[in-house]
Design goal:
The protein is of the alpha/beta class. The protein folds into two domains: about 45 residues, Urease, subunit C, domain 1 (Roll), CATH 2.30.40; about 350 residues, Metal-dependent hydrolases (TIM Barrel), CATH 3.20.20.140. About 30% of the residues lie in helices and about 20% in strands. The protein has 13 helices and 17 strands. The strands form two sheets. Strands 1, 2, 3, 4, 5, 14, 15, 16 and 17 form a nine-stranded mixed β-sheet that branches. Helix 5 packs antiparallel against helix 6 and helix 7 runs parallel beside helix 8. The longest helix is centred in the middle third of the chain and has 18 residues. The radius of gyration is 21 Å and the shape is globular. The mean pLDDT is about 95. Bound molecules: zinc ion. The site of zinc ion has 5 residues, from loops.
């Protein structure tokens, strides 16, 4: 007698789609059986006509706890994630106070968030630098990196552009040092790549312009974060990989010119991986002009031809992961009436429509196989972030995570109904087809038909990298 059997579904893997029944016992995949097996189980879910994925991993999410719970906390962010089909999220170390930069903060953060996560979670640790500190003063956390690695963080994140005192920018000295320190542990270091000097100077110049309309300010904002800032920072970080032999992940690549640099580095044999996000694959500068403050993020959305070309790099495997980069805000911080693009919070409320948007784009708009989703949102993130062995594939003994997606089910984002704390999203009124109808984590149903289960809150567990 199995605990749970998902029957008659179409299992989606990176290579193929096939019909089979899945049996889960004691929280792990216990058997893969011929479709229609009638295997005895305490609970049976019929997935006929639907796709079945081994969960969805969001490798890039900001849930803001501790420190900015007025924007989002683990309960609200993770319940939205569960409803959206996400079974594991990897939480960022910033937009926190304190940022996750040493073992003491790790212990404190775990004590808070493990009480009320609705999905399994791993953590990014922080690399904080001393870009703008005076000679002799030390802000960086180089001495804490190995301890943090031993705590079980899945990766480390650093910021190459101006980012405020809570998470100081890394300079290339910090990047090089961090890679040297973490190389013996084969630990992964991810970077937000926009070059400090260009962003600082160009923003300063743009903000000094007088009598700008709302539209002109958006143009100024986009120009001050143009592709050259992302390109130069990415090249610099890749050079530090060349210098150290370290392992790097380039976060949220927005532009084909940047993706090409990553591709060349991978071909050279450097240990580089990279991700992009749904908003760079389906949305453009025009969307920022249309939506204003709610659509502000960095790097910003690019031109249509750049967006189209970015797909080539997802298809050829250069951009091997797709994360949400959910970075929530309080409603007033994204209010288009009272905030211009400079004053608005930079980050999107996206976690609840991350999978439906990708499914609609991949399967319905592009006519591609759902296998691409299993690749960039399951298998590859599990491999890159060390979760493979537990997560990311239909393998016996892996965690019994399941997302059942009805490929024809229509969805529409309505920001009033979001399960996140904030209710302003640039994706309000966006619609498409293909939505999760059931989310299962370690054999337990945590969400159904777009709504989380109350008992899921607190069920989510910390996932330590397997190696
Ligand atoms: Zn981010």
């Amino acid at each position: 007698m199995y605990d749970l059997v998902i029957k008659n579904g179409k299992l989606v893997t990176p290579d193929r789609i096939y019909e089979a029944d899945i049996a889960i016992t004691d929280g792990v995949y216990a058997a893969f059986l011929q479709a229609g097996s009638d295997a005895p189980a305490k609970e049976i879910i019929d997935a006929k006509g639907n796709y079945v994925f081994p969960g969805i991993i969001d490798c890039h999410a900001h849930l803001n706890e501790p420190g900015f719970e007025y924007r989002e906390d683990f309960a609200t962010g993770s319940r939205a994630a569960a409803a959206a089909g996400c079974t594991t999220l990897i939480d960022m170390p910033l937009n926190n106070d304190p940022s996750l930069m040493n073992k003491e903060i790790f212990d404190m953060k775990m004590g808070l968030i493990s009480k009320h996560s609705a999905v399994d979670f791993a953590l990014w640790g922080g690399i904080v630098g001393d870009y703008d500190s005076q000679p002799g003063s030390v802000k960086n956390n180089m001495k804490d990196l190995v301890d943090l690695h031993n705590c079980g963080v899945a990766a480390f994140k650093g910021f190459t552009c101006p980012n405020g005192d809570l998470f100081p920018t890394v300079n290339m000295g910090n990047v090089r040092k961090a890679l040297e320190i973490l190389k013996p542990y084969n630990a992964l270091c991810g970077f937000h790549c926009e070059e400090f000097g260009q962003v600082l100077e160009r923003e300063k110049e743009a903000k000094a312009k007088e009598n700008r309309t709302k539209e002109e300010k958006i143009r100024d904002f986009l120009d001050s974060h143009d592709v050259w800032t992302e390109y130069v920072a990415t090249k610099n970080v890749i050079d530090m990989v060349r210098a150290t032999g370290g392992r790097v992940h380039i976060c949220h690549v927005s532009h084909p010119m940047v993706a090409q640099v990553v591709k060349d580095a991978i071909h050279e044999g450097l240990s580089i991986t990279a991700e992009t996000c749904p908003h760079y694959l389906g949305y453009t500068e025009d969307f920022v002009f249309e939506k204003g403050a709610p659509a502000k993020c960095t790097p910003p959305m690019r031109r249509k031809e750049d967006m189209e070309k970015l797909w080539d790099y997802v298809l050829d495997g250069t951009l091997s992961c797709v994360g949400s980069d959910h970075s929530p805000a309080a409603d007033e911080e994204k209010d288009n009436e009272t905030k211009d693009i400079w004053q608005a919070w930079g980050g999107l409320n996206s976690i609840q429509f991350f999978l439906p948007m990708m499914f609609d784009m991949v399967v319905h708009k592009k006519g591609l196989s759902p296998s691409l989703i299993a690749k960039v949102m399951d298998y590859n993130p599990a491999k890159v972030f060390g979760l493979y062995g537990k997560k990311g594939a239909f393998e016996l003994g892996f965690d019994g995570d399941i997302v059942i997606v009805d490929p024809e089910r229509p969805w529409k984002c309505s920001q009033e109904e979001l399960l996140t704390k904030g209710h302003v999203s640039c994706f309000d009124k966006e619609e498409g087809k293909g939505a999760p109808v059931c989310t299962v984590i370690r054999g337990k149903v945590v969400a159904e038909d777009g709504m989380y289960k109350e008992e899921a809150i607190g069920y989510g567990e910390f996932v330590r990298p397997v190696k």
